[in-house]
Specification:
Elements lengths: L1 H18 L1 H12 L5 H18 L12 H19 L11 H12 L1 H26 L6 H49 L6 H6 L2 H11 L2 H24 L2 H11 L4 H8 L3 H15 L4 H10 L9 H11 L4
Length: 323
């Protein structure tokens, strides 16, 4: 699903370049056609507006105009209408828009529809040449038909290459995403015994750095990630070494919002012992209240990672009620 979405976005951007040839061809025909065909002028304006929609998608977020399949269908309609209007005009190649449309057909609808479109084009070329011969008695000169045919083949090959490259690009992006997720999972699993989990990695922008590493194989960014992780582990160890096992146990209960009496009952000690241990933790952490103890413990990753940020904030606020 993700690969399809990425490929669709890439196809839409590539189609804009191909579709831009339609108003350019219309402009060239207006410049060279002595009849100054008003239909070609209208087609020039419509196709230009159509491309402008694709360049400013934020104004048409809910419109089917942005679906690249509908874009291709509209260009097919433009090309067929141009053919019908120009079939009796021997100054204008009626299939001038065919190469661009064929490239779009290959990119959007695939090779099967492309081959059918080529067959239709051959039929239209035959009809055009027969019309010129029987209506205007023009000499049989298939030069322009050959040029259109060669151009159609070349644009078809271009469309095939663009489709292949977009699939490859989408696959590369997906592999990068999976690699980043795998690296994040490895780091979280490896560091979780130290109290450093996924949320900690997110807070330290590790996930974003890993994405940069996977995107550009940035060794310098990888070194920076290593330094940050080393600092996190060192900070955790230094803070943990300040406290005794009993103090770490009480710190966990304080973080849960337990009162001094509840802690004393759980650990089966006196209230004075609990207060003495909490005072010792405050002194070692250089803080002056229970909520500051929790913040200090969270900062140094001394608490199990079982709560999200919102629940932790609510818990810190509730701790003051037991002071």
């Amino acid at each position: 699903m993700l690969t399809t979405t990425i490929a669709a976005e890439g196809i839409r951007s590539r189609l804009l370049w191909i579709r831009a040839t339609i108003p350019l061809i219309c402009l060239a025909i207006l410049w060279s056609d002595p009849d100054r065909n008003l239909f070609v002028l209208g087609l020039l304006l419509i196709s230009t507006f159509d491309i402008a929609i694709g360049l400013r998608p934020q104004f048409f977020l809910r419109s089917i105009l942005l679906d690249f399949r509908y874009m291709a269908v509209r260009d097919i309609v433009y090309a067929l209408a141009f053919y019908v209007v120009s079939i009796y005009n021997h100054h204008v190649p009626a299939l001038a828009l065919a190469p661009s449309v064929l490239a779009e057909i290959y990119i959007v609808f695939g090779p099967r529809i492309f081959y059918r479109a080529v067959l239709v084009q051959l039929i239209l070329i035959a009809v055009r040449m027969a019309t010129m011969f029987y209506k205007f008695h023009l000499q049989w000169r298939p030069f322009w038909a050959v040029v259109i045919g060669i151009a159609s083949i070349m644009t078809g090959l271009l469309g095939m290459e663009i489709a292949r490259l977009e699939e490859l690009r989408a696959d590369i992006i997906l592999q990068r995403q999976r690699l980043k997720e795998t690296l994040t999972e490895i780091l979280a699993t490896t560091l979780s015994p130290s109290g450093i989990g996924v949320s900690v990695l997110a807070q330290e922008n590790i996930s974003q750095m890993l994405e940069e590493v996977c995107h550009a194989a940035n060794r310098a960014k990888g070194h920076e990630v290593g330094l940050i992780l080393a600092q996190l582990i060192t900070s955790k160890l230094e803070a943990a070494n300040l406290l005794t096992p009993r103090e770490l146990e009480m710190l966990s209960l304080v973080a849960e919002g337990k009162s001094y009496r509840q802690i004393a009952q759980i650990l089966q000690v006196s209230g004075g012992t609990v207060r003495a241990h909490v005072a010792s933790i405050m002194r070692k952490a250089d803080v002056h209240s229970r909520d500051e103890i929790v913040r200090w413990a969270l900062k140094h990753h001394l608490l199990p990672e079982v709560k999200d940020q919102d629940s932790t904030s609510q818990e810190v606020e509730s701790i003051s009620l037991h002071i």
